[in-house]
Amino acid sequence: QKEVEQDPGPLSVPEGAIVSLNCTYSNSAFQYFMWYRQYSRKGPELLMYTYSSGNKEDGRFTAQVDKSSKYISLFIRDSQPSDSATYLCAIGAGGNQFYFGTGTSLTVIP
Amino acid sequence: GAVVSQHPSWVICKSGTSVKIECRSLDFQATTMFWYRQFPKQSLMLMATSNEGSKATYEQGVEKDKFLINHASLTLSTLTVTSAHPEDSSFYICSARAGGRGPTEAFFGQGTRLTVV
C-alpha cells in the first residue's frame, strides 16, 4: 500500500468554480500535511500546510485534514485560469522524509 | 520566498557517461538539501538528504555509488549520476532548507530533466 494516494486527474473546471483536491494516506503517525503547486517546468512551491488536524484558510484556499479518515483536502474557491497547475500533497511525520502524492493536474478554463 | 536554483534544467547524455546536477540556494544558507527523483506519472521520491559538510544519507534502494552527492558549502549541493543508463532517465529535483527551520520550510529548485540515450 502506498503511503499517499492522490488522483492524478486531469481535472478541468470553468473559471469561478470551486475545486476540490484530495489525498488519502496510510500512516496515522503523520502530522504534517502540505499542499504544493507546481507550474510547468518549475519546482513545487509550498501553498499551504497544516500541522495535526483541522482546517486552515488562506484567501481562496482552504486546507482540511480529517485524521480519523486519513484524508486531506484542498479547496480552491473562485478558481482562476492562473490556478492552472499541478497540485501535490505531501505528508510526513516531522522528520526529513515526506511522502508526495503523484499530483493532480488542474486546468481552469476562462 | 527563498530562491533555489537548479542547473541544468534539462540534459541529454549518452549511456555510460556521468552527469552532474547543481543545486544552489541563492539568498539563504542551506544547511540541509534534499534530492528527489520523479518518474512519469509517479510521486516525487526522496533519494537522499545531505547536511553541509557531512556525508549524505541515502534512502533505501538508492545506490550511493551511482548517485554521488556532495554538499561542500552552505549554498551548493551537487548530484552526480555516474555511468548513467536509460533507466536513470527521470526528473531530478532538489530542495534546500536553512538551519533551524521546520520540515515545511524547504524550497524547491525547478528540477532537471535527464534523458540517457
Keyword list:
A: 110 residues, mainly beta, six-stranded mixed beta sheet, five-stranded antiparallel beta sheet, B: 117 residues, seven-stranded mixed beta sheet, 0% helix
Question: Which helices and strands occur, and which strands form pairs?
Answer:
The complex is a heterodimer of chains A (110) and B (117).
Chain A: E1 4-6, E2 11-14, E3 19-25, E4 32-38, E5 45-51, E6 54-58, E7 61-66, E8 71-76, E9 85-92, E10 98-100, E11 104-109
Parallel strand pairs in A: 2-11
Antiparallel strand pairs in A: 1-3, 3-8, 4-5, 4-9, 6-7, 7-8, 9-10, 9-11
Chain B: E1 4-7, E2 10-13, E3 19-25, E4 30-38, E5 45-51, E6 57-58, E7 67-73, E8 76-81, E9 90-98, E10 106-108, E11 112-116
Parallel strand pairs in B: 2-11
Antiparallel strand pairs in B: 1-3, 3-8, 4-5, 4-9, 5-6, 7-8, 9-10, 9-11
Structure description:
Chain A has 110 residues and is mostly beta strands. Chain A has no helices and 11 strands. In chain A, 0% of the residues lie in helices and 56% in strands. In chain A, strands 2, 4, 5, 9, 10 and 11 form a 6-stranded mixed sheet that branches. In chain A, strands 1-3-8-7-6 form a 5-stranded antiparallel sheet, with no helix packed on it. In chain A, strand 4 and strand 5 (45-51) form a beta hairpin. Chain B has 117 residues and is mainly β. Chain B is built from no helices and 11 strands. Chain B has strands at 4-7, 10-13, 19-25, 30-38, 45-51, 57-58, 67-73, 76-81, 90-98, 106-108, 112-116. In chain B, strands 2, 4, 5, 6, 9, 10 and 11 form a 7-stranded mixed sheet that branches. Chain B is globular, with a radius of gyration of 13 Å. The model of chain B has no long low-confidence stretch (mean pLDDT 92).
